[in-house]
Amino acid sequence: MEQKADQDTSYVTMADILQEQEELEETSRAVLGGSDEKNCTYSKGYVGRQALYACLTCVPEARGVESKRSGICLACSLQCHDNHELLELYTKRNFRCDCGGKRMPDVKCKLEPRKEEENERNRYNQNFSGLYCVCHRPYPDPEDDVDDEMIQCIVCEDWYHMRHLDVDKPKSAKDYAEMVCGGCMEANPFLKNYFGKINDAYKTVLDDTVQVDVTGLDESNAAAEADPDVAGPSEPKQRRLNDSKVPEEELKKVASLISLDICTMPPIVTGDECKPSYKKGASFWVEGWRKFLCQCKACVELYKQHGVEYLLNEKDTVKHYEEVGKQRHGTDGTSYEQGMQMLGQLDRGTQVDMLTEYNRMTSRLREFLDQFVANQQVVTRDDINEFFAKLNKERRETATSGPPPYFCR
Prior knowledge:
By secondary structure, the protein is mainly alpha-helical.
């Protein structure tokens, strides 16, 4: 008798596995798709944004010594540090690969051996030591059983537990696209002016029930879009950026409500000069907010002084990086889509045979792994290889000498 999935929580179907594979591929395309997996990126200089890793096998001192922190590109993680203890750092901006360089003198880079220059522009936050958030804890944290989302600050690029941001979490993921932590808001106080004006303007346009006082604002002074050619100096449980798009006509309405004249907005704000919309702690920003940053000479110089001129570069965003990665993979579809399409092209008898064999294999694998759970043993690569070797041997013996498998048609 056929069992339904909702009657047995241990029941696993081919569709379940393919669906899980699709989710894994989606994450892989988002994080790795925009990076080069075959060539070391050192010769490209300080790449705008790329996936990075820290190797604790080659530089174990990085756990406790800040000056020993280093980062390697995706290709080097695969070719030069295979089977090493690597920290996945998600993506970082404006970074040049350290593999085999001054920070890793005992390592020989297989892809690009000559790395003589010091990567002076690289920035190494605590993530390169395996620590995150204001709590300075690792991820996953063996001493923390709270299931909390982590989100990356777009300025310092550290990861923060949502509960440690000192602000209320937005009601919906659609309410924001990027976050600036409280420390970076204090280090870049001019953002406090923008926070109130931009977010309130969005609420006015997108929610008719919210009113914003725009008295004295110059509606003719709309924000110029950032020049896409401006050079950009980027699992904790990763929060992916909101995929929704704000229509261009709505952005124009928002721009009409924002005064970006530096003369009407002090570049540094303190005390009562702060907009009421910003109080303290982290700030959550709506999609497209960077378009409305003032680009007059005084403001651009201000951004440079604070080292945040990359905010004017739309290509700096993680969302842009993820979209590039997805485009590179083409339109062939995921393994889930391809697998279901191929399965649907087979005759009914072959489909049943394949699914029965698959479910038999998953049942055997579950029994095999249960032994390790009961004995509190760690499963190794050799254990898994031995399991499948035994399974293949049994399948060959059954095919040549044993009775045909029984299938319920």
